[in-house]
Each structure stands twice: as C-alpha cells, then as structure tokens.
Automatic annotation (TrEMBL):
SUPFAM superfamilies: Zn-binding ribosomal proteins (SSF57829). It comes from Methanobrevibacter millerae. GO terms for biological process: translation. This is Small ribosomal subunit protein eS31. Residues 4-46 form the Small ribosomal subunit protein eS31 domain. The lineage of its organism: Archaea, Methanobacteriati, Methanobacteriota, Methanomada group, Methanobacteria. Part of the 30S ribosomal subunit.
C-alpha cells in the first residue's frame, strides 16, 4: 500500500508531485505506475510507456 506521503517530495519550501496526474480527472488524482503503463484508478485512463 502506498502512503500519501510517498507521492510527494519536499524540497525546501517546495512540494513536488512524484506521480503523473490524470489528464481526465485533473489535480489530485494520480496515475499508478505499472511498469509498462500508467493508469488512473478512478476513470480507467491508461497510457502505454514507450
């Protein structure tokens, strides 16, 4: 299980998101990395990696 704190990187006073954000759902919905693809668990949007 992934904790929410694992999805962000804190660099000084900046907060950086580690995972890609779903283009359909928008901010706050991360896409899961499955090795050969990234997928949104909310809407099902999937992108294949090159």
């Amino acid at each position: 299980m992934v904790r929410k704190s694992d999805l962000y990187k804190v660099d000084g006073d900046k907060l950086e998101r580690k995972n890609q954000i779903c283009p359909r759902c928008g901010e706050g919905v991360f896409m899961a990395d499955h090795g050969d693809r990234v997928a949104c668990g909310k809407c099902g949007y999937t992108e294949m990696k090159k």
